[in-house]
């Protein structure tokens, strides 16, 4: 007699569940968002087994049926709902390393928030970066997104991690993350989507992820991705994965590197005394 399939449920391990919420809440900071105290209370109830993720989402929908001007200004609905959805995804079976997974994660995170949830952008975009003194990373042209990401996914899947040293594993993971993020396939939410996609990928491969890194260093993670994808060869500036690798060494092996945003500031882009308020 064959065994029947079982329904995958939420983890009952409070420590693990708290780590999912830590990452989920911390990742909102990459877009300058701070989840509300109410969301923190719901998260605590979920950790204690008093509320499910589905119940939390229902409560948040009721909470934001009539958004206040403060809610709208602070983007509280987005911060709370996306955080809850990230925790739920992390506490679920992972996604395969495919373009469709990237789109599915973005759609799940931003449904009812952005009308383009799960859809690749149809225009070219740029974003001034403080660590580059207002310069921008050159994102992939929107006409090449599908082909570029398909190449990145296929390249990653074609190589094995078996027998690699820890250092080579970290370099591979950092390079893959950087390539996904550099495409910037969505109009909004690219860093949060990339982080969730990569954590699902790492969990699928059996890596143990320290989610306090995303809780405490999510902005560093984003700035490290900026530095991994910015070059100005005319002025001797090249891309560097070193900061991203340091993040992953801490995330996956507890290496203990000191991660400071000020170390990621590209000083060559600043004129002394005219640093736009950023401490060099």
Description:
The protein is mainly alpha-helical and 280 residues long. 51% of the residues lie in helices and 0% in strands.
Number of strands: 0
- Overall, the morphology is globular
Distance between the ends: 68 Å
- Roughly what fraction of the amino acids lie in strands? under 5%
**Segments where pLDDT lies below 50 for 5+ residues?**
273-280
Helix and strand content put the structural class at mainly alpha
Number of helices: 11
Q: State the helicity in percent bands.
A: 40-55%
Mean pLDDT: 93
Could you give a short account of the major beta sheet?
A: none
Rounded radius of gyration (Å): 19 Å
The string of secondary-structure elements, in order, is: HHHHHHHHHHH
Enzyme class: transferase
Catalytic activity: L-threonyl-[protein] + ATP = 3-O-(5'-adenylyl)-L-threonyl-[protein] + diphosphate; L-tyrosyl-[protein] + ATP = O-(5'-adenylyl)-L-tyrosyl-[protein] + diphosphate
Domain Fido: 97-246
InterPro entries: Fido, Fido-like_dom_sf, VbhA-like
Summarize the structure.
Residues 97-246 form the Fido domain. With 280 residues, this protein is mostly helical.
